[in-house]
Amino acid sequence: MRYLTTDDGTRIAYDDQGRTDSPNPPVLLLHGLAGHLGEWDDLTPRLLSTGHRVIRYDARGHGASTRRPGDMTRAAAVADAAALLTHLGAAPATLIGQSLGGLTALLLAARHPRLVSHLILMEAGPAGPTPSLPTDIAKWLATWPTPFRSFEEAKTFLGHEAWARGLQKRENGYHPRFDPAAMTEAVSELATENYWSDWSRITCPTLVLRGERGTMPAEEAKEMQTRRPDTKVEVITGAGHDVHLERLTQAYQAITAFLREDKYPPLWTRSGPRRGA
Predict the structure, then answer these.
(1) The pTM is what?
(2) Which of 58, 32, 46 is nearest to 259 (CA)?
(3) Which of 138, 195, 217, 250 could form a disulfide with 126 if both were Cys (CB 3.0 to 4.6 A apart)?
(4) Stretch 175-184: mean pLDDT
(5) Distance of alpha carbon 277 from alpha carbon 267, whole angstroms
(6) Do 180 and 142 contact (CB within 8 A), yes or no?
């Protein structure tokens, strides 16, 4: 694990693997709310095997990053991702983001287009506002019977081993590596805002993966395509909100097919804008 300290003093824990000279764009993986970079443990080796450099990190307020940063806004989250890509010389990169991490990826692609070559969103989009979201998140986190007495208890309650791996083991059990108040702060602006204007500004090739049993409405994905017709949308059969954990093989196949097709080349390369851009 390595660390980057941002301009506001937040420490971002990250992992960087693979060839820095690969002809394939580097991949930046962005986890969702209350998650951690270990959620990508199964996808990472698959991407590495196809020659990608893979960078993943714990978002501010999560995992091994600063637990209680002073700023949990989406702007701060976007600035972290931009700073990490710049620090590592990894731009332009393919962004793969799930849920809240997908929204961060979407905003990064809109506001820093030179840093992004491709955008892949899992159960994430620009719709809103959702007034009840902060309260709903707070209530959900309050149901966690922490500390969990065992890893198996945590795995059973949370629904997937990857979520349980994100907990910290202490003498009295397994604890979340985040502050619940920080999680509600992270989604507070989603109660009053939507991001359709950002969506319309994105120019890079984009894939949206929606779980068949997920929380992303089909209408939202349809509207995304209406506003940006080049957007590709795929429904992952049998998957819920955690597409990357529940149907990894299907998601990976969709990702690799999308990157191979690349019918719409990114506007920017490492040496500057493409001819005609």
Answers:
(1) 0.94
(2) 46
(3) 195
(4) 98
(5) 6
(6) yes
β-bridge pairing 168-170 and 173-175: antiparallel
Amino acid at 178: F
Kind plus residue range of the DSSP H or E element containing 169: strand 168-170
CA 47 to the chain's CA centroid: 16
What would the pLDDT profile of 65-118 be if each residue is shown by its tens digit? Answer: 999 999 999 999 999 999 999 999 999 999 999 999 999 999 999 999 999 999
In this structure, what token pair is assigned to residue 9? 């003093």
**HEC assignment per residue over 84-99:** HHHHHCCCCEEEEEEC
Q: For residue 187, give every residue at least 6 positions away whose Cβ sits within 8 Å of its Cβ, in sequence order, or none.
A: 33, 100, 133, 134, 137
Instruction: Assess whether pLDDT exceeds 80 at residue 265.
Output: no
Helical (H) or strand (E) element with 225 = helix 218-227
Number of separate helices (H) and strands (E) present in the chain = 11, 12
- The pLDDT confidence band at residue 220, using thresholds 50, 70 and 90, is very high
pLDDT tens figures, 21-35 = 988 999 999 999 999
End-to-end CA distance of the chain: 38
What is the Cα–Cα distance from 273 to 37, expressed in whole angstroms?
A: 31
Check if the beta carbon of residue 60 is closer than 8 Å to that of residue 77: yes
